[in-house]
Structure formats: structure tokens, C-alpha cells
Amino acid sequence: MNKTEIINIFTKKTLGLTFVLSAAAFAFAQEKVGISGSVVSKSNQPVPYASVTFSNKANKLLSDAALTDEKGQYKLDLAPGNYDITIEAIDYQKNVINKQITSAGNIGAFSIDPEKSATNLKTADIQGVVITAPSTKPYKVELDKRTYDPSQDIVSKGGNLQDVLQNVPSVSVETDGTVSMRGSSNVKFLINGKPSALLGIDDGANALQSIPADQIERIEVITNPSSKFEASGTAGILNIILKKSKKTGFNGSVLGTLGYLPQTNLNTNLSWRKGKFTWFLNGGGGYRESKNTQRNSAYLSTGDFRETNNESISKSKNDNYNATGGLVVDLTDKTSINASGTVRTFDGTNTGNIDYTNYAFNNAITTRNRTSLGTNNNLAFQGDFGIDHKFNDKGQNLSLSLSLQSNRSNNGSDINQTQNNLFDLQNLIDQKTKNKTLIGKADYELPIGENSKLEAGYRIDVNNNNYQNLVRQKTSTLPFMLYLDDYTYNAKYEEMFNAGYVQFKSKIGNLGYQLGLRNEYSTIDINYMNLAGMRKKPKRITTISSQVSF
Asked: What positions does the domain Outer membrane protein beta-barrel occupy (predicted)?
């Protein structure tokens, strides 16, 4: 068994591992017993809709509560132990008693006394109730970005990142997964503010299907990047913010979808938070097939009255798996450290078949057939470590992070063409890419008054990329494969990137503005060699960028 087979087995067992861990966690839960009881007044009359809270003195996670019915009775399941029982009801005094729960059964009636004031004589009618709830709008506009919340959009439920992006205003997603903003597909993706192995480096369109919508907290659409982001000439930035569990105890969720052609997705989120420690493990996977058929017919009157017909059929299928595990430790109330690791795989196959038929004016018929087979295999790893510190509760924060990423991608293409049922052309393309990246970041935020904020930071990127492109061709006149010298090459790309930024945000009345300055310094080395010759082209670029936004 080779290394690739071992890795594929590991990644394809990710979902099974998450469910095993989930079952193991529940196995440790203490067995509960069913109890019942009632709440009565001093005159031994039942008290309806009274709140009965059982607080376990040994383990708060075993606490529970119930509400009495119209007859003053209640039922619930509790783990045996010592409990403080709090009884509360409108127009009655709160009563707290202690009781040991040992076995199932009726634990008797609890008595509560009426309030000493006259309010117990009759509950006064109120004039009205004002209920305040957060806005359900999934989209909001801020000074330097627009934010989309997929949890508020039922259309995105059960989908993946590609499905979510289809509902984001100003973002377009093609059927093949290509994302564009303002008419350009030169879009930069970030995960939690930095490039991530979860999306990969060179196959972002395919990797969109590997992030379930259930893991996404929000999407930041940045069409006019501030000085906080690198000065790259993109159409915009999509910053994907993933969820972080804040619930105490063991929490888990499983989300699955089944669609036509077929389309299947299954995702599991597990977390355990107790005291200063939070563990989390997320795993998911999916399989998708698609088919596209196009037929065209044209009549050309350019001297020979030619008629042309063609039919194009393409099919694709892919599967992806990902797993992320990590730990967050709260050192103090204001300082925490975090560490996490991610592995992701993607395998895809695309087949195509195109038939051409040309009818000339002299009844001559020419037929051509073109078939293609494309394969894509991607494996990515990422390790992250970070420190977050809050100086106070007013928003003065310092964040330090370090990320190590590795990505390996293999792409293949086999194209065959025949004319009048005779062999005409064959091209074989094999592309291999290996990327290693180190990213270090430091970001500082300082609020100034109620409406202003100063931000500053530093970032270093070290990239080491290797590319191999092999192109072979066979024609009807040359019946054996030959490498194409101009297109077969090995290339190595190394980059050291340093950047620092400072920006100031504020507003005067309803007018918000932002001033920023960013300085970048990068050293790039390129070593390129193909079969036709060799070239080496080192390059150094120093970039100073400034931006003013209102």
C-alpha cells in the first residue's frame, strides 16, 4: 500500500471517526431516572405553571428544570444525586429546598407561600408587551465591507459554500464553480482573514464544495480593500468566517443532504467545553455528479453555403472530505491560546464528448469527434497557532497567529480527436503542483472614543511553490508520443513577503471615513526550465500603497 492510498483511506474514514467520537462521548453520560412531583399552595391548592429548577451540587451539567401543568404537576428525567430545588411562581414567594434523588418515582409535593403584598389578590393587567429581537436580514453594509449571514437564509440550509455564494449579492457563481465579482473571476478567498488549506491554493473553485454551509458564521464581501489587506489587483476579497463553539459541555450536530444526479453531503460538528478548555472536531464529505448537454446548428452563406451541426455532452463527478480538530485554552479572562489542524482531499473527474458535422455545397460531409478526460486530485494540510489578548472591555485587542500550510495537486488531461472516423490527434497533459506556505500575523486594535478606532499590524509570508507540466502529443502523421518542448517545463517559485499597515476609522454624524497606509516589501525568485532551454529570472518588488475611503 503506497502513501497516496494510505492518505485516501484516512480521509475517507473521517466521517466514521467523528461519529465514533460522538458515540463515545455520549456513552460517558450518567444514566437518568424519571421523577415526578407537584407544587401546591399553603392551602394545599395546586399551583399551575410554576418553575421547578433542579441544580446538581456536584456537577452543574446535570442540572435541569421543569414547568408544572394546569394541575400543578411536573415530570422530568434526572441523574441521581444531591440537588438544590428552586420553586418560583407568579404571586408566590420563591422557595429553595435540598433533596437527594436516588431512584425513579414521585418525590412528593412542594409548598410555596403567597406574596405578602396585595399583588397576590389579583394579577394586574398590563397595557402591552414590547418584544425586541435581532434583525433577520441576512445582509448588512458596513464602512469597509458588506457582511452576509447564511444562517438567516433558509435557501442555504443543507448546502455548501458554493450554494451560499449563489445567494450573496454582487457575487456570481457559474455552474462549474467559478466565482466572479463585478464581472471578473480574479477573486481572492480568505478563511478567517488569511489564505487557508481548507480551500487549497490552486483549486478554489472545486474546493468551494468542501465547506458545508453549517460551518459558516458569515461572509465578508470586500470590494474596496482597506490597507489591512494586501495590495493585489483583484476584483475583490471574500473572507469566510467559520463558526466557533461557545456552548458549555458536549455539543454536536449532524447535517446531511441528498439531491438529484446525485448530490450528497454529510457534515458533523463536535465540541466539548469545560472550564478553561474547549475541544472541537469537525468532519465532512460529499459526492456530486453533473451533466450538461449543448446542441448548436448554423447555416453559413459565405460562398459555399455550409451547414454546421455539433453536439457537446459533458459529465463530471467529484468527492471531497475534510477534517479539522483543535483546542482553545483560556489562560485568563482576557487571554486565550488556540491550536488547530486541518486536512482536506478532493478528487474529481470530467468527461466530454463533442460531435461536429459539416455539410458543404457540393454535398461533401465532414465529421469530427473530440473526446476528453480530465482528472483532479488535491490534498491539503494546515496547522494554526494563535494568541488573543483583550486589554480591556472597550475593544483594545492584540491578536498573534502563525499558520503552516501544504498543498499538493495533480491534474491530468487526455484529449483525442478523430476526423471522418480516422485518428487525427491526441494530447496528454500532466500537471503537478506542490505549495508550502508560512504566514505570520500581528493585528492590534485601539478604540478612540465612541466613534473612532486605530488599527495597525504586520504580516510575513514565505511561499515555496514547485510546478511541473508535461505535455505530449501524437498526430496522424506521427504515430508515437512526443513531448512538446515549449510546453513541458519545471518551475520553482519562492517569495518572501513583508507588509505593515496602519489605518484610522471614524465618523462625523452620518459620514463615515477611513484613512490607511500600507507598505509592502517582497523578494521573488523564479527558476524556470523547459525542454527548449532554461531561464532564471529573479525579481524584487517594493510596493507602497495608501488608500482613503469614505
From this structure: 389-531
What type of residue is 440?
G
Q: Are strands 105-111 and 95-101 parallel, antiparallel or unpaired?
A: unpaired
Mean pLDDT by 10 residues, the chain (550 residues): 44 44 43 90 89 89 88 90 91 89 90 70 55 59 77 64 80 76 78 67 54 78 76 73 68 77 80 84 85 83 72 89 89 91 91 89 83 93 93 90 93 94 92 94 92 92 94 88 90 90 86 85 86 58 49
Do 166 and 220 meet the contact criterion of CB atoms below 8 Å apart? no
Torsion-angle region of 65 (φ positive above 0: left; ψ -120 to 50: alpha; else: beta)? beta
Strand positions, DSSP E, 201-334: 216-222, 236-242, 249-259, 263-274, 277-300, 306-330
Span 31-117 CATH architecture: Sandwich (2.60)
Amino acid at 211: I
| Torsion angle, alpha carbons of 89, 92, 96, 100, to 10 | -60
Burial level of 180, CB count in 10 A (0-12/13-18/19+)? middle
Q: What are phi and psi of 207, to 5 degrees?
A: -70, -15
CA distance 60 to 42: 31
- Top CATH class, 139-241: mainly beta
Boundaries of every domain in the chain: 31-117, 139-241, 260-549
